[in-house]
Write a structure and sequence with these properties.
Protein name: Glycosyltransferase involved in cell wall bisynthesis
CATH class of the largest domain: Alpha Beta
Largest sheet: 7 strands, parallel
CATH superfamily of the largest domain: Glycogen Phosphorylase B
Helix content: 25-40%
Structural class: alpha/beta
Strand content: 15-25%
Keywords: Transferase
Distance between the termini: 13 Å
Number of domains: 2
Domain Glycosyl transferase family: 170-296
CATH topology of the largest domain: Rossmann fold
Radius of gyration: 21 Å
Strand order of the largest sheet: 3-2-1-4-5-6-7
GO molecular function: glycosyltransferase activity
Organism: Chitinasiproducens palmae
Length: 352
């Protein structure tokens, strides 16, 4: 099939550091190419891909301080895709509701994966006015607040060999990985670590918008001798960081749409202890890949049960459920269904 993947321009594909959506777009794109599809990636010019790259903007907006209106490059992006739409069997957008108006008037099938939280009151009127726009959720829980034309739920996946248990790992500490902001509750992770008596290592990004929160609420907690703040780490550093952790803590206080960090930990054989919010009970197999808990007390109690879990079984469950190849195959099923519904033959067939 000839497939267009349309990524946001805020980060490169894949991002240099933190960036969940663009990272998933990269994993999906590379898996589709490996399966034999003809893929064009519409993204920033500093993206790296084995697909055909259509560089709509020279570099990721996060790294381009000269850009003060982020909507302008995205308007250029959507128009560039519109002008080339007939070249593709299907257009796969990762731009929330931005494509609905223009592409709903065209005869090229398109689908949008929604990557963010959907419990915002301003969203429903937008989806009400575009009732035929087909969307994919990244967890069933993500769908709950929004009435939309749901096509499927497709869980995120990682390349199977991207992260593996680190040779000679000696799990000694608890890990927190991701971004520091109020809803991720690194303060709660610190509390869990303190009550359990285990050291905590925090590998996290601090966005400008969260700097004041970090300085006011989190920095005073970092004085604890058992807490080490590492800062933002690269993809290459994740396997060692996660493999040497007894467990990943995810004490979130928001309806997490998916939580890529959970499957990153599982890929390293590291159990996940996460609060029962959003997608967590769909991603974590309670008692197999970790524990789904309700509060700090439950998290501390779960830490005492880590010996019941097999790190090999955690890795095996990752391979069974959350590889990029499985994610890509599920999306291809959706692309084919869209083509069939539109009565269009594929521009390119994939053998085998």
């Amino acid at each position: 099939m000839r497939i267009a993947q349309i990524a946001p321009l805020y980060e490169a594909v894949p991002p240099k550091f933190y960036g969940g959506t663009e990272r998933v777009v990269s994993y999906l794109t590379e898996a589709l190419v490996a399966q034999g599809h003809d893929v064009t990636l519409f993204a920033s010019g500093d993206s790296v891909t084995s697909a055909t790259l259509e560089a709509v903007w020279p570099r990721a907006l996060r790294l381009d301080p000269s850009v003060r209106d982020a909507l302008a490059p995205h308007a250029l992006l959507t128009e560039t895709v519109r002008q080339r739409a007939s070249e593709f069997d299907v257009l796969h957008f990762h731009l929330d509701y931005m494509p609905f108006g223009v592409f709903g008037q065209m005869d090229v099938p398109f689908v949008t994966t929604l990557h963010g939280r959907l419990d915002l009151p301003e969203l429903q009127p937008v989806f009400d006015i575009f009732p035929q726009a087909e969307v994919v959720s990244i967890s069933d829980a993500q769908r709950a607040p929004l009435r939309a034309k749901w096509r499927d739920t497709v869980y995120h996946g990682l390349p199977e060999d991207l992260l593996r248990p680190h040779p000679g790992a000696k799990p000694e500490y608890l890990a927190f990985l991701g971004r520091i902001c109020p809803e991720k509750r690194v303060d709660t992770a610190i509390k869990i670590a303190k009550q359990s008596g285990l050291p905590l290592k925090i590998a996290a990004k601090v966005d400008k918008v969260d700097q004041e929160y970090y300085d006011r609420e989190i920095v005073p907690l970092l004085n604890d001798a058992n807490v080490e703040f590492i800062g933002e780490i690269t993809e290459a550093q994740k396997a060692e960081f996660l493999s040497n952790a007894k467990a990943l803590l995810l004490p979130i206080d928001w309806p997490e749409p998916f939580g890529l960090v959970m499957i990153e930990a599982m890929a390293c054989g590291t159990p996940v202890i996460a609060f029962n919010r959003g997608s967590v009970p769909e991603v974590v197999d309670h008692g197999l890949t970790g524990f789904v808990v309700e509060d700090v007390y439950g998290a501390v109690a779960a830490l005492s049960r880590l010996g019941d879990l097999s790190r090999d079984a955690v890795r095996a469950q990752f391979e069974k459920r959350f590889t990029a190849d499985k994610m890509a195959s599920r999306y291809v099923e959706n692309y084919q269904a869209l083509l069939k519904a539109a009565g269009r033959p594929a521009l390119r067939q994939v053998n085998g």
